[in-house]
Amino acid sequence: MIHEVDEVLKKLLGGGALAGSDIDVSFDAPTRDWAARRNGPALNAYLYDIREDVARRQRGSVPVRDDRGVVLRRRQPPRWFRLSYLVTAWTKRPQDEHRLLSAVLATLLPREIIPADELPGSLGELGLSVPLAVAGSRTEAQSLAEIWSALGGELKPSLDLMVTAPFPAVPEYDAGPPVTEGAGVRVRGIDGSLEGSPERHHRRPLPVPDAARDGATDAGREDATDGGAEER
Question: Which residues does the annotated region (Disordered) include (predicted)?
């Protein structure tokens, strides 16, 4: 799931206001060694935090239906995780870096929701939209100073980018066939034997089509009307 989110972000960051700029998009840790190896302008989206969004957790099972609406399989609801990225721009001049960050804002701010048809692989198969937030307030995540200190670099202008993505739940199991007969009941004797105890079935009534049900209702009304007329 995470690599599929990376694929979506790379496409987003390379498009929009940055389309045609040939800016390299990297997901490496922005350490001093990485910065020294860089050959040209680049955007870095470093994944620094992964947390489950427990408010979105669901219980039970979700039916998987075919084109006719028949339940084929059942699966557990997906678990949602918040992926936090530190987006930085890398050029030779701070002014150019600021322009790149402005272009990132212009590209991502209109994209608060990524529809399912734009998601690859297992993300797209779930049919769920993915929310995206940029430059939001930092709550549970680490402070910027702690992040840069861990990376061994100096503090740099950055944007917080958070993607809340579903993780497909496993396993997925086949649904059983529909019930067509009622339960069978037999009664044991005092000695524990079933001799002389026939099995009794409670048969469920077959579903009645709407047209037939309406006709039966109308007929019942007519019978009731006729019967009432005869009594009078």
Answer: 189-232
